[in-house]
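question for whoever is on the cluster today: can someone run the full assembly for these? two chains, 759 residues total. i dont have access anymore since they changed the login thing
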Amino acid sequence: MFSVQNVTKRYGKVVANRDINFTVRDGEIAVLLGPNGAGKSTIIKCICGLLRFEGAIEIGGHPNKSLEAKKLLGYIPEMPAVYDLLTVGEHLEFIGRAYELEGWEPDAQRLMERFELLDKKDKLGKELSKGMQQKLSICCALLHKPKVVVFDEPLVGLDPHAIKELKLMFRELKEEGASILISTHMLDSVEDYWDVAHIMMHGSFAATKYNRSDDGDEKDLEELFFEITEGKVGTDEIA
Amino acid sequence: MKSLSYLFLTNLKNSIKQLVKHPAKLIAVLFFVAIMVMVVITSGFNTETEFRDIRELYAMILALYGTMYIMGCMNGLHSGASFYSMADVNLLFASPISSKKILIYGLLRQLQVSCLVGLFLIFQYGWLNNTYNLSFGGMAAIFLGYCLTVFCSSLTAMFIYSMTSSSENKKRAVRYGIYLIVLLLAVYLLTAAFSDRQNILGGLVTAVNAPWTSYLPVFGWLQMGVVGIISSNFIGIAAGFGLVILFVAAVLLLITGTHADFYEDVLKATEVSYSAITARKEGKVQDTPMNVKVGKTGIGKGWGPSVFFHKHMLENRRNRLFILDRTSLIFAVTCIGFAFFMRESGILPIFIFSVYMQVFSTAMGRWTRELLLPYVYLLPQSPFKKLVNICKEVLYKACVEAVVIFIPVGIILQSSIPEILSCIVARIGFGILFVAGNILIERVLGSLTNKVFIMFFYFIMIILIAVPGVVLGVMVSILIPGALGVSVGLLCTFGWNLLLSGLIAFLCRDILNYAELNNL
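^ ran it for u. tokens below:
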């Protein structure tokens, strides 16, 4: 599990995230929804230790910048993170060696098969299309079998097969007990596999909705989202 | 045309407004202008009475214009040249405006860009004035010629692309044609230069100033025009610029007359330059060659943080030309060439020049690129170990560069072995210091997203941390007379640089915990 407590992120005078609080438990899928510029990517980068922030973030009970926390974390950035001059296979070798994973090769092979990258094993990062780079980025993030996986707009640029495979992977990771956070502004991409959805506006949580039968809220996620983002209800009213 | 002039003027107006809205940018521009004005004014106090042969300057002008023009034309063989932004492609090309008007709009934009690119030439005014008694009017003429060279090279590249893009054979023919011309010119120059071994420079200058070189297409004509302005030769001015005007008109006529649909020809180049601009804004360095030979695959070595070094070596293997990568090799060849022409001045000026070049090669090391991807931050390893391992490649490069530069330089200058060794060691020391300066600037300004400012402060920081070592070295070399003094002085700078770098590395050992990934 991981928790975010009173996190505020400022860029000079601009407050990108204001007093964010939430927890994602083991085996839970949380989604961050919100329009462009709502602060989703910023809070994700704070969680992954890529930005400085005020407040506290713990991963598996450890501060997010500690080595113990980093061992548990997998991060898939919005822009694919690949090296121009490494082949697909070498990216996975790099992760295997860097994370000191014994016997990483069969897992790498399996991931490449699932994302149809096996025939591109000897292609350089710079020769891949954006979608392919995104698939490789996903493989790199999952090779060390993280317990907390953070996806930033993971479906953008993927082909239908990769989207299907990734959605299947979300469910598998959930069944294995991983805590998953997915940021997106595409409502239909999260369908029904989410457990909790946080809707962000102007750097803060405007609403939180649970995907349970006993959830008292009659509105579905899409209705709630548009009510908030189109300003039909005040954010304080819901949050 | 109203819409296009509106677009052109509004873009210009908004870029000026942006300066007012962003004081930091305004300060940078004012600083740039102030330095330029200072260079021009201080050159007015020139007390020199003896000047070098002005024909050397004419030869340099031809070499500069020729290099820029041929390099620009070569672009036409793979991506063409573009005068447009992606916004122009998406909005203008689809609009009901005549393609000829859009071409004129593009040419005006290109002229504007060419002028901005050429501004760096003004900084050369000081030494050109001191060495060749060049007037400011002459400097302005060189600047004008440079702008026109860049402009004509883009136009030629576009023309070459539109004529050859459909056929590999045509492309090959043009490529080999250009190679042949360059080869013939090189053979001619080398033969002329070495015809009198006692006066290589003189032979070279005479060869470049031969009357026929002024008739080399475009860059020769432009040199003729500019030399005409400097030497008040009105026939040269009329002939040079007249030929260029005829050339531009003929190319435009060919593009618009026989090949009115030029949109496709500029599309690829626009996309290439758009991705390069985006990469630059994000602080990414794009120096990956177009065609990379993959060779043997697999990193093969390294466990934990040390894998970064082996990954960098693999990337270097795919990027390099010889032992060194492209940039380092160019720097090394430049230093060796510099030594060849400065034989009388001794090894010290070459050392200073090579250290100056090293500032840039260190700033472009692989470790700075590593900070733009998340892996180095995410890896569960000690931040200090990661830091050391991502810096190893640039230190290795500093060692190889020092050896590759100073052994040939030492042979050319017939320097003693202690002199060569002290230069190698001292240059490695500066390499280590520059890496430390880089780390320090990342630690202090890591959260800044403006890479231009980071580079600006990096240079200031480098000067500040290097000065004490240099002062120490100079004092020691004054105290110990002769060549030994220079060697001991250089070793003193090494000692200081090593000490300070160690201190900086220790103080910044947690940089990877504090740095911010600010490229996205």
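summary bc i know u wont read the tokens: The two ends of chain B are 38 Å apart (CA to CA). The mean pLDDT of chain B is 82.
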